[in-house]
Fold this sequence. Notes:
By secondary structure, the chain is mainly alpha-helical. 69% of the residues lie in helices and 0% in strands. It is built from four helices and no strands. Helix 1 (7-17) packs antiparallel against helix 2 (25-46) and helix 2 packs antiparallel against helix 3 (51-72). The chain is elongated, with a radius of gyration of 15 Å. The chain starts with 6 loop residues before the first helix and ends in a 9-residue tail after the last helix.
Amino acid sequence: MHDEMSAIYLWDYFYAKDGPVPGDERTWRLIENATCRMWEAEPHVRATYAPEIQLAQARRLRRDCRAARRQIALLSARPPGWVMSGLVALEVLADRVVRELGRSVSPAQLH
């Protein structure tokens, strides 16, 4: 669907374009929240920021991708395939940044 998946498309799907089936409202809200946090973290992962900022935001992005995927598994009606593909692509991006920067950033720099 998109050359490079961006969290804004995922957030837009869950927040603006679609809505939950009855009974899935709580789970949907958790997914909305996770995709919003992903949208906030993504620019810090993709752009050149201080390594400790990139690492912290990559961990946040990865955590929220995983949380959204867990919650999507609980939905009565699954979103389109591109949503899961997008979550996986963002998680792969975050994993790569965590791997690359995790060895070079000391824990003291993260606080």
